[in-house]
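user:
I keep going back and forth on a fold encoding question. Separate attempts, laid side by side, tell us more than any discussion would. Would you put together a sequence-and-structure record for a protein of your own picking? Write it directly below this note and I will take it from there.

assistant:
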Amino acid sequence: MSHLTAAQTAHLEDLLRDRERVLREEIRTHLLQSDVQHHIDLAGLVHDETDAAVAGMLADLDLAAVHRDVGELREVEAAAARLGSGSYGVCASCGAEIPYARLAAQPAARRCVTCEAQHERLYVHDNVPKL
């Protein structure tokens, strides 16, 4: 992390804190909107199998959005932990310094651009290597 100035580090910490706040609010909002009464109301509108399929799809979309936000929140929290431990801004794959511009664009980045591209080619879903 020595390649980052104090001002850059403070800016990145603010970005992480702001993103964490936004994600927590989005998760809270999604969960409040998808409460039991919401699904009861939605089910009351179901008149045939097509409506039931649409209602099920909408419920699944709500859950997928929450799952996505929780995953990103975990990444942001992990980045904040790295910031606290002094390992923030160091590529988890090759150990190179991650440039400030990349961190400013993606504050939770764990890898440099080169290693992230390679990781994305090798791992399609949830860190499972593709064949």
